[in-house]
Amino acid sequence: MAKIGKKKASPGDQRKSKEVQSDGAFYTGEVGSMILARLAFSKEFLEKRKHRDIKICDPSCGSGNLLIAGAKAIPDKNVQVYGMDIQKDQCELAEKRLKEIIPEEKIHIKNMPHGVQPDGSVKCGSLEILVDD
Fold first, then answer.
1. pLDDT of residue 129
2. How many other C-beta atoms lie within 10 A of the C-beta of residue 130?
3. What is the average pLDDT across 43-72?
4. Does residue 13 fall inside a structural domain?
């Protein structure tokens, strides 16, 4: 199995990740991510779709392990990745890691509004970010 690679995160990013985990977040490990990607993208599946991009979406992407494993499982980088998370720093880390393996225009990471907003409203990981204004 190909390795996903180390998270290229600063000690501050790693500390934030541990704080997020202690707040109830769940992270899919690298080995589990690789196994899931291999199961999802069988040779038969990839053969049927070899001339078009495959879209991968992780609605709670965290630092991007599942997206990275999926992108690495697809030959020729015929992939578009979509990730969302309520933790802005995790979205930034996922995007940074993905840029190391696929072109930037194929990466679509969004931070979902969560908690009290500047206007005083409260959001709870709203998917309204998916709707164009």
1. 60
2. 11
3. 90
4. no
Q: Report d(CA 95, CA 50) in Å as an integer.
A: 25
- Is 27 within a domain? no
Task: Copy the structure tokens of residue 119.
Answer: 């206007």
Query: Cβ atoms within 10 A of the Cβ of 9, count?
Result: 18
Q: Which domain holds residue 81?
A: 52-115
Q: What is the pLDDT of residue 26?
A: 74
pLDDT digits (tens, 9 = 90+) for 74-133: 877 789 999 999 888 999 999 999 999 999 999 999 988 888 888 998 877 766 666 654
pTM of the model: 0.73
**Alpha carbons 46 and 75: distance in angstroms, whole number:** 8
Q: How many CB atoms sit inside 10 A of residue 86's CB?
A: 19
Contact 63, 10 (CB under 8 A): no
Terminal-to-terminal C-alpha distance of the chain: 42
Between the CA atoms of 49, 82, 72 and 65, what dihedral angle is there, to the nearest 10 degrees? -140
Under 8 Å CB-to-CB from 17, ≥6 apart: which residues? 9, 27, 63, 90, 93
